[in-house]
UniProtKB/TrEMBL annotation:
Record localization: Membrane
Ranges of residues in domain EamA: 7-133, 143-274
Protein origin, superkingdom: Bacteria
Keyword Metal-binding tagged: no
Organism name: Albidovulum sediminis
Keywords tagged on the record: Membrane, Transmembrane, Transmembrane helix
Protein name: DMT family transporter
Amino acid sequence: MSRTTDILFTSLAPAVWGSTYLVTTEALPAGHPVTLAALRALPAGLLLLALTRCLPPRAWLGRAFLLGSLNFALFWVLLFVAAYRLPGGVAATLGSLQAMMVILMARGWLGTPIRAGAVAAAATGALGVALLLIDPDSALDPMGIAAGLGGAASMAAGTVLSRKWQPPVSSLSFTAWQLTAGGLILLPLALLLEPPLPPLSASNLAGLAWLGLVGAAATYAIWFRGVARLEPGAVSMLGMMSPVTAVILGWVWLGQSLSAVQAVGAAIVLGAVWAGQRCNRGRSGAGQVGVA
């Protein structure tokens, strides 16, 4: 596939992740963030393991659990904490700083050069997300801010290390390893920290199926495929598609208003994502890394 096709295909993942807020608020029981994260990760991971029939070799177990923690367990828990303690716009804006973090981490771990245009695109994208989502009267909770920044850093580190550590298996198998590991980390935490789930309705089960099968298994396989093929900074910029999708779904599905400022913010985000793909484009063969 061409680089443009890879970018468009990879962008499907964060576009689908934009539905997470809608599904969580409209179709899942409240007050069980760790349990729901475990139910999103572990069944999806086990299903992919059954489909691929590819278990990680012993030498890869430590890496699989570290990546599963960074990309799923730690990231999702901090994401929920930020969502509970901050207005959604503030939490999403903090999450958009992930693109800047990836640029810096890729410099240290992969030796990827820092390009001024890429930094400018990441900063502009974060500004666009702020215009798209932040209410001027938003309250700022210190613990929520710390969780939001920690979640962005966790996903950024997971993205860069997923590029650095490329196992000789398909992206589907690589996703299966990480989802299963993340789910195994989350499961005992859910049992220790949260009460049992109430009886689940058909709507609850449909929501979990969407988040697990589509929002985790399918989309993360697409995401890790993109991580292996594209520059880390270019991939991380695509993550800004998620809040744009979330706002559009809220407007279409929930009848929420869409102001002129939000429309400008969405346009800025899309422009920054486009610019980020051009600015992060390396020379042919640059940035290719194997198992380290």
